[in-house]
Amino acid sequence: MSKDPEMRPAPMQAEEADSIRALATQLRVDSIRCSTNAGSGHPTSSLSAADLMAVLLTRHLRYDWEHPALPNNDHLIFSKGHASPLLYSMYRAAGVVEEDELLNTYRQFGARLQGHPTPVLPWVDVATGSLGQGLPVAVGVSLAGRYLDKLPFHTWVLCGDSELAEGSIWEALDKAAYYKLGNLTAVVDVNRLGQDGPTELQWDMDAYARRVEAFGARALVIDGHDLGQIDDALSRARSEPDRPTVILAKTIKGKGVPEIEDQNGWHGKALPADMAEKAIAALGGPSSVHVTTRPPESGTPAITPDAHVAVTLPDWKVGDKVATRAAFGAAVSALADRPEVVVLDGEVGNSTHAGEFKEVAPGRYFEIFIAEQQLVAAAIGLSVRGYVAFASSFAAFLVSRPFDFIRMAGVSEVNIRLVGTHAGVEIGQDGPSQMALEDIAAMRAVHSSTVLYPSDAPSTAQLVSAMADTPGISYLRATRGAYPVIYGPDEQFPLGGSKVHGASADDQVALIGAGITLHECLAAAEQLAQSGIKARVVDLYSIKPIDVDTLRRTCLETDGRIVVAEDHYAQGGIGSAVLEALASANTPKLHLALLAVRELPGSGEPKDLLNAAGISARHIAAAARDLVMD
Amino acid sequence: MSKDPEMRPAPMQAEEADSIRALATQLRVDSIRCSTNAGSGHPTSSLSAADLMAVLLTRHLRYDWEHPALPNNDHLIFSKGHASPLLYSMYRAAGVVEEDELLNTYRQFGARLQGHPTPVLPWVDVATGSLGQGLPVAVGVSLAGRYLDKLPFHTWVLCGDSELAEGSIWEALDKAAYYKLGNLTAVVDVNRLGQDGPTELQWDMDAYARRVEAFGARALVIDGHDLGQIDDALSRARSEPDRPTVILAKTIKGKGVPEIEDQNGWHGKALPADMAEKAIAALGGPSSVHVTTRPPESGTPAITPDAHVAVTLPDWKVGDKVATRAAFGAAVSALADRPEVVVLDGEVGNSTHAGEFKEVAPGRYFEIFIAEQQLVAAAIGLSVRGYVAFASSFAAFLVSRPFDFIRMAGVSEVNIRLVGTHAGVEIGQDGPSQMALEDIAAMRAVHSSTVLYPSDAPSTAQLVSAMADTPGISYLRATRGAYPVIYGPDEQFPLGGSKVHGASADDQVALIGAGITLHECLAAAEQLAQSGIKARVVDLYSIKPIDVDTLRRTCLETDGRIVVAEDHYAQGGIGSAVLEALASANTPKLHLALLAVRELPGSGEPKDLLNAAGISARHIAAAARDLVMD
Predict the structure, then answer these.
(1) Where is each Transketolase-like pyrimidine-binding domain found (chains A, B) (predicted)?
(2) pLDDT tens-place string over residues B91-102
(3) Cα distances (angstroms) measured from residue B330 to each of A91, A563, B342, B361, B426
(4) What is the ipTM of this complex?
(5) Nearest CA to CA, how far is A244 from chain B (Å)?
(6) Which residues of B touch A580 (CB under 8 A)?
(7) What pLDDT shows up at residue B5?
(8) Sign of the CA dihedral running B513, B515, B517, B520
């Protein structure tokens, strides 16, 4: 990626320093004004970083405010999202938020200037406010810049010092250094005070620097209120080619309002009106400094997304035994023909079969190692840059370890694809630590989520392909073992659909399964047929959205007799999804038997564990018989 | 805590070194034998650490194998749980597992020697197998040793190198150093190879050492196959008073079987029978070395749990407005009279009110800062030591950030108490990043969980008190705002119960709520009464276990007309719990309206957000009217 000669701004002259100082004062005044008007917010956490952001905004950020979607724009992510008064005050100074909006809508119902930033605002990449997430996401953004777009934009992240206690920050710095992300700079506002007292390291700048350097980033320790030092550090950060920079800025919380400077007890508190008035007057009163930001560098992204590339999915022969995880690997590899598709692995690519993508598109395969929070955060960052990122690992770790990142991806309304393999007791000998048994409940409850659980290779391949074009967070649960291919190559699997097997007008009961239990339901239907009971089977491959119409019709046609079998704990899973759907459809009569995992499983052969959990064919058949006899 | 003169073993003589070498060989042979017999497992990850564990077991671990519950015993936690063949082979050498059990039951259905260790075995403290968790839990164990028990036991943790990519490891080392845990030693088996290729840092021992030292622990770099170096490092580790030690042992994966030593592609694979036979023969064949472990030091724990201490809970006046989070703070402070009660804070103790405990029992209050994984892990470690630990933070972060730790706590079947405050849209202005809206779904699906959501101060206090005596993982969801006290001081709130308000024989509809929505349901019932509709209200403070009997009776008595209102997303929450309960009770007829959060909320006044989500009194009343008119 080219670095144009204008990369480094001319040395800061005295006059410019004065105007930056005036801007910093305005950012402070505005931070106080908007939070005091709102009656809540985090002014003191904004004041400490005002000088840092004033210099960044004036001299280093390269951004076209009128065209926030421009791929060449720098990124600015407030990892300390609670400093939203400062961020919004910067937007005012940049001319994209009016004074009236800032002062009168901040934190109000229906307003876009929310308590913590979200992408409702066009200049915000991702929602922050859960600490330790902005930097990991920025790693994904910067990965795209360096390896995919090959554009010279820079990613700037404002971190708090408290959030450096989150392990996710260290996962992020580790990966940033590993991938030589010279295009990433974290500015840490070390203001010594957390929400509830001093931080662990307070102003031990050397301790922070040692940690940062040990993780492979460059540490620059500065006085965060000295404009010259700030400017120099930001310049050096941008010109470092192959190493992320962490600017450790020693600051004073509440800086600019002497009576609360460096005082505990002022976190997350708006100044009372009288105090605010006095403070604003002492700062010189409101002003209307307008900043002209430097334009982004020119350049064209090296990759142009093309959703219209014809992708030929692999096919399989009905009856062949294929693991759905293998089908995922084959399908996502076929999707490599689309230049925007990227795969992220949690160091299990040989088991999840994600590794097959590396063979066909090594430049779009990123090894994140055993760091699932960073795995999902990187996918979010790539989504910010317009890529279609699939992150995969074992379902137990992929959903539960980064669950807060998945939750926040929902708040951001970004588009990410998660594929969790090795789900449920079906995994067998490795035992319960490796068995996802709560992933469906957790993922269903995430805003914007789609939850899929196919039972065979062709349905998996089609759903993986559909995920590439599905907005929000899509999650596909895959199975470890190999089971027969059920569907032919022309079968379609729309999201929100289902497949009904063996329906007849006089069915007495319906058996609902997905993934591994679909095979058990099919076997149970055969057993029931032998004893003269007519059962249809519903393949509920799409758990969210769910096929309400088919479920309602099924319920009506079987006189409400339904068995649901799932390789998941009994709470919040497939059975719950069916009950919620039938309740929403106001189905008059229902006798539902829910077969699910109810005790802690151990190790063993998959078939023994399915039997022990009471979710295998014979249990399904028995439950169906009970319903029919009842 | 006293350190007895026998703390440091006598220098290792040549003869002893020979017997340790023989033990290490046996551990290798046994690791190969059991995994080959099972047809799966991780022999190569066991072989690399065999020398380390042979020296530890023979000369440093102080443990009474016949009395694993002895409080003076050292702890040995395999954070790399996949090295279970090695751990179980150590148990055989210690004489507590027979050769037959090891060879013929490992990974078999119903066996206690599972694929990854769980506390089904009396010598295992916690389940491992999700990487990066053993060390954080050990921090909790060691906190207890240093600050509560004041016993000289030592906690030894075997870590893998791959798991050092997990941020949770760095949260753990950070806290271990902060709390000066000289009684904690991590032995890292740096065998260079992960599951899917080389690790990030491979054998860059200096890089590991820099990170460890930067985080405040002592790093000792050794050759992990040199018995003398191992012995020296373990001696030094135990005698370091105020700093955790990390022994960085350079090892060779597969060590002892030349054809697979340091070879990629052998992770998690049992040797085929012919290879195993050859390897075992080359190692000298099976043996039966028996180790006599040094006994634990003497001493009495400084704290003796006493569940019979009379605790006087605070009381409140009906009608007073009190936040349930404030009631939690008051109740848990009252519980401080029980010497085994400990409180852990995620640097928000002033908001959660957990901080009040610090005033009454500062020695049993641990500040974990913004590191929720470590927060929960520390609670797990304290549970291992018999303490009743309450961990609290905002619900959004407490449940979702450490969800994998909570899941694994379920696998461990330990007893921990989680209190998440500031749940749902009710929190208002801070916006969606701070709103737990998926916590109930996630927590319900965890094995052994109890999920509570009280609506007023007295019920909160009683439930907090009940949590102290509740096995498994109990979770209480608390509200930010202050709402009227509903219940008098003598009201009882058993787990699995509910409270029915205003029931009469001719009720037309039931309104079910919990927490904030209970107040909305009560208001809705009044509105309905004014329009002549008789509605009863059910306070479902216990979401899991749930009051099936009352729900069934409610359903029968209202002709199936039920409105559920919840400040949670519509999937897997209270509505689902009610539907699951009614399905299990086979209730014949049900018309259930589920009012829940269905769109991404923003910032605003709580009442505006409750309205916007459609879960406030007027929506509940309207839904009830619709059901009644239907």
Answers:
(1) 322-485
(2) 999 999 999 999
(3) 43, 46, 14, 13, 22
(4) 0.98
(5) 17
(6) 570-571, 575-576, 579, 594
(7) 45
(8) positive
